[in-house]
Amino acid sequence: MKNYKIDSRRIREITTHAYLPVEESLQFKTDGSCIVYWMSREQRIQDNWALLSALDESQKRNVNVIIAFTLVPQFLDATIRQFDFMLKGISEAQMTAHSLGIPFHFFLEKDPAKAIVSFANSVNAGAVFTDFDPLKIKLKWKHEAALSLRCPFYEVDAHNIIPARFISQKTEFAAYTLRPKVHRLLPEFMTAFPIITPMKSKATLPDVFDVQNILKKVKVRKDVQPVSTFTPGTSAALQHLDAFIKQKLDHYHVKRNDPNAGYVSDMSPWLHFGNISAQTIALQIQSSKKDKESIDGYIEELIVRKELADNYCLYTSDYDNFNGFHAWAQTSLNAHRSDERSYLYSQQQFEHANTHDPLWNAAQMEMINTGKMHGYMRMYWAKKILEWTHSPEEAQAIAIYLNDTYELDGRDPNGYTGIAWSIGGVHDRAWFERPVFGKIRYMNANGCKSKFDVKKYISIHSTENKGDSLFP
Ligand SMILES: Cc1cc2nc3c(=O)[nH]c(=O)nc-3n(C[C@H](O)[C@H](O)[C@H](O)COP(=O)(O)OP(=O)(O)OC[C@H]3O[C@@H](n4cnc5c(N)ncnc54)[C@H](O)[C@@H]3O)c2cc1C
Predict the structure, then answer these.
(1) Cβ(410) to ligand 1 under 6 A?
(2) Same domain, 311 and 328
(3) Taking residues 7-14, what's their average pLDDT?
(4) Which of 18, 72, 231, 388 could cross-link with 236 by S-S, CB 3.0 to 4.6 Å?
(5) Are residues 346 and 454 in the same domain?
(6) Can you tell me which atom of ligand 1 is nearest the CA of 272?
(7) Could you tell me if 110 and 244 lie in one domain?
(8) CA dihedral 381, 384, 385, 387 (to 10 degrees)
(9) What pLDDT, on the 0 to 100 scale, is given for residue 463?
């Protein structure tokens, strides 16, 4: 990695009270002996601006970079399904780091901020770098670490192609307000990644961690089993992307709303765990010489929609509750609180796919069995939860619980935003008023019938295919 200038607009200094832009050169504790990269959301080695920034600074200071990952034994509603996927991906990242001579330390700790501070002190870090994540829990960890670290602390946005804190300083109203900024700035940020080559240093490499041993120690639901539909890690992500571009991208524009067709990219689990960078995907998609409408449609989802979700969560701390909805949506949903619901289901009935609607049940089963529901069905699925619960608050809480428990890509800004869009009209406009929904956009099974073969979808994801271990 030589002569590469990292764009400082990706980097913020984390202080105890703010994320400050970096105007000039980065700071380093005078007697520091290394740089620590606290890896979190971006679980990969190559094409990772956070690691690249740490390496760039380490070369200027003539010190080593050490990667540290602090795993918590419990995280939101994640189960053994997501921990299994994540740990296998991190294990690959650790081996890649070691093959390049970069030490990668792994810790299982209840308090990640305490763990990183203690590690940074023990190796006498001159600076700590971490990656960007707008979720509240991650911001809390960073704040706690900032209170105790004895060296400069930097955050690098390695997730968004255009850094979220740079592109906008407020909650964007909708895609149409973010899109022009994205298209204006994209050429500046869509640069090729420098490749990390083996380090000359003789850094001591720690033992590799044992995935199965860690899986035994985490304190999560074990009945939601790992799925074989997705292979964890960066190599699998790159292989999958290559196959998608070669075999499916040309049809994306026309077939992406048909859940039976299989023409979406299915990249979201790897994107969620940072096994692959959206910028890597975008660069490959744009240079693919495939159908222009498909390329443009894909870039709209991968960049505009995805980065809009990070924007929403970054500037709306109520991204997971009713207060995060627009005023018009809150007023409208409030006006329909006492409307009669045709059906009412408990969280357990939803979870067990026990509603009267075979299409909704099939969507729930697709998520349970494969770890990923098709994007078109996610909208129908969430809107029906609004229709069949006592209140929008209950609907949102159930949708988040199910999404975060069963989806591999759950616990993600895209999920909180997608649910807020479906149930609370976030990033959407007011529609014609109707019972229960008020002015929130409505969806019904007839809409689905006009898009795809509903009977076929139901037969593929029938409730008869319930796994043995779940809901006996
Ligand atoms: C109720 C609901 C819940 C959702 N939950 C999640 C979730 O937990 N995690 C998640 O990653 N996405 C979620 N989404 C957004 C979207 O449905 C998924 O990103 C998409 O289905 C992932 O499949 P794919 O990779 O095959 O998508 P593709 O169509 O191939 O798109 C490529 C990539 O673009 C991004 N993208 C696509 N659609 C959207 C969108 N609507 N909003 C933001 N980014 C998008 C994703 O990163 C996706 O991987 C949710 C949407 C709704 C309506």
Answers:
(1) yes
(2) no
(3) 97
(4) 231
(5) yes
(6) 11
(7) no
(8) 170
(9) 78
| CB-ligand 1 contact for 306 (6 Å cutoff) | yes
Q: Phi and psi at residue 64, in whole multiples of 5°? A: -90, 160
Do 81 and 51 fall into the same domain?
A: yes
Strand order in the sheet with 104-108: 19-21, 11-14, 153-156, 125-131, 34-39, 64-71, 104-108
262 is written with which tokens? 């299989």
Residue nearest to atom 1 of ligand 1 (CA): 419
pLDDT in tens, 108-161: 999 999 999 999 999 999 999 999 999 999 999 999 999 999 999 999 999 999
For every residue of 2-49, DSSP letters joined together read -S----GGGEEEE-SS-EEE--SPPP--TT--EEEEEE-S---STT-H
pTM: 0.97
Q: Write down which residue in 159, 185, 204 finishes a domain.
A: 159
Tell how far the Cα of 306 is from the centroid of ligand 1, in angstroms: 8
Other Cβ atoms less than 10 A from the Cβ of 160: the count is 26
| Ligand 1 centre distance from Cα of residue 333 (Å) | 25
Q: Is the CB of 267 under 6 A from ligand 1?
A: yes
**How many structural domains compose the chain?**
3
Domain span including residue 418: 322-465
Q: Closest Cα to atom 7, ligand 1: which residue?
A: 415
b/e for 267-298, b at 16 or more Cβ within 10 A? bbbbbbbbbbbbbbbbbbbeebebbeebbebb
Same domain for 186 and 46: no
What is the CATH number for 260?
A: 1.25.40.80
Three-state DSSP string of 130-182: EECCCCHHHHHHHHHHHHHCCCCEEEECCCCCCCHHHHCCCCCCCHHHHHHHH
Block residue for tokens 């898009």: 451
Query: Is residue 14 domain-shared with residue 130, that is, in the same domain?
Result: yes
* Ligand 1 within 6 A of CB of 415: yes
Give the pair of three-digit tokens for residue 391: 């209140």
Task: Tell me, yes or no, whether 300 and 389 share the same domain.
Answer: no
Burial class of residue 80, CB neighbours in 10 A (0-12, 13-18, 19+)? middle
The identity of residue 429, as a single letter, is R
Any ligand 1 atom below 6 A from CB of 240 = no
359: tokens are: 């299409």
Asked whether residue 426 falls in the same domain as residue 441, the answer is: yes
Chain segment 27-67, per-residue pLDDT in tens: 999 999 999 999 999 999 999 999 999 999 999 999 999 99
How does the average pLDDT of the chain come out, rounded? 96
For residue 214, list its beta bridge partners. none
Distance of alpha carbon 36 from alpha carbon 151, whole angstroms: 11
What would the mean pLDDT of 181-202 be, rounded to a whole number?
94
Residue 228 belongs to some domain of the structure: no
